[in-house]
Amino acid sequence: MTSILEQAPRLVIDMAADFRLADEESYRRHYGAHPNFALAPRFVYGLSEARRDAVARAECVANPGCMATSAALALWPLAKEGLLPDDAAVFAVTGSSGAGGEPKPTTHHPFRASNLFVYKPLAHQHEAEIARVLSEDAGRDLHPRLIAHSGPFVRGIHAAAHLRSEEFKDRDVRALYADAYAREPFVTLRDEPPAVADAQGTNHAHLFVKQQGREVLVLCVIDNLGKGAAGQAVQNMNIALGLPETDGLGAPGFFPY
């Protein structure tokens, strides 16, 4: 990896998890030993909407995980305003493509068809990168939970955060989200709850926010292969190279969808 970076052109975007975390102990806990963690400070965490300025100056970008992208987008406006509760939890369901290309018993069609199941309960590796980006912007340590499920579809993530806080009672939380994402080309705040199909084959994140006093529901729907992976990588590339941010991301994807 060292030689690759030393000989690299203008920009490196890493799609793996190798450089998403700033703390080596956290990395070791979730992924095992790192072959060269000394390179980690060279990488900017590439959640485009939250780290646009840093990505624009970066030569090395760590592209976020798909579940982390959906959960962080759902919680980030609250974190940066200092309003995210310490017990925040996100219930998320991903499609079969989120399991990668290596066959496993749980990716076999007879197991997945007409089925829904939790995986890595209270131990999902993306929790660490969600906590990283939210804690940095909140100015305090946050430990949000990600309750990950796998569903009987191919592409997409449907994430739901149910939150309670006395601080919500005097705030218009939906307006806070509208302001946070007002100028974002790939984030849409919806008036009705979005469906997985709304995001499939695209780089768009569809959010929905509903508030009842101290209680808030936030939904975020993305394509795990688009905004959760390759689409966000192209978005980060455009930002880093000074290109129009939407270049190459306007056309819908094709099968699987």
Give a quick summary of the entry.
With 257 residues, the chain is an alpha/beta fold. The chain has helices at residues 2-6, 24-31, 52-57, 66-80, 109-112, 126-138, 173-180, 226-241; strands spanning 12-14, 44-45, 60-62, 89-94, 117-118, 145-150, 157-164, 187-189, 205-212, 215-222.
What this model shows, in words?
With 257 residues, this protein is of the alpha/beta class. It has 2 domains: 2-64 and 229-241, Rossmann fold; 66-227, Dihydrodipicolinate Reductase, domain 2, CATH 3.30.360. The chain has 8 helices and 10 strands. The protein has helices at residues 2-6, 24-31, 52-57, 66-80, 109-112, 126-138, 173-180, 226-241, and strands at 12-14, 44-45, 60-62, 89-94, 117-118, 145-150, 157-164, 187-189, 205-212, 215-222. The strands form 2 sheets. A 7-stranded mixed β-sheet has the order 5-6-4-7-10-9-8. A 3-stranded parallel β-sheet has the order 1-3-2, covered by helices on one side. Helix 3 (52-57) links the parallel strand 2 (44-45) and strand 3 (60-62). Helix 4 runs parallel beside helix 6 (126-138). The longest helix has 16 residues, at 226-241. The chain is globular.
Which properties best describe this structure?
29% helix, single chain, 257 residues, 3-stranded parallel β-sheet, Rossmann fold, 7-stranded mixed β-sheet
- What's the total count of β strands? 10
Question: Percentage of helical residues?
Answer: 25-40%
Between the first and last Cα atoms, what is the distance in angstroms?
Answer: 34 Å
Query: What's the CATH H-level superfamily name of the largest domain?
Result: Dihydrodipicolinate Reductase, domain 2
